[in-house]
Batch of 2 targets.
Target 1
Amino acid sequence: MSIDYWGATYAAIICSVFIAVGAVVSACGANTTQFSLVIAGRILMGFGSMLIESAQLKLYTHWFQGSHLALVIGLDLAWSRVLSVISRATAVPMSRINDWWGWGLWIPAIVTVVNLIVCIAYWAFERRVPAELRPPLGKDARSEEGKLKRAIDFSVLHKLPRFFWLFCGIRKCLAVSGDQTADM
């Protein structure tokens, strides 16, 4: 709900902050050899990781439509799979840099900070775009809500196709018969 109200851009920045701070805290755990710090950093990263994909998809749907949207989502999924393979393949070589396993946490932490910088750069870009082309915010739509409210017009119900009414009737009969069989 907060993504809809404040906008996907702010949600992406907040999520990126959680991910970056969590990655840095986790990497600091490698420096201090405190495994509890590594776990705490991973928990912080989890808070941001839970919502970042929703924010990304909301931004994709604003900027792209139709087959272009499908292409962008497909590229995003493919890129995440490629990065997953690369990160798994390079984890052991990174941990062997200077014979210290902490690089396996610090290099991804640096990447998450770069991601945060990219999110902030996108926010700056979005502020330069004309207001009518920006992704809409829920808080702005709330002021327009009163203007768009209308009473339900029951006179248009006869314009619905017969199939709609047939489907509703069948669903109602199935629901009633389902209730009776549940009682047996």
Target 2
Amino acid sequence: MSAGQIGSRFDITGAAISYHLRLLRESGLVTEKRQKNFIYYRINRETMAELAEYFTSFSLIANETENSVT
């Protein structure tokens, strides 16, 4: 999606959208592709899968801890 398409889904300024997209790009969570006057953003599925696995490990640890206490 372009920044404009993404921005239309939120009630924040275009500058704020650009700022957050830059942070997401720098962190590797999204990639960008430039076409003429537009930049299209795409979720980096590999990085998102790694992030999901990381957060899942917390719930597994919490469940193990909870089960060992009771």
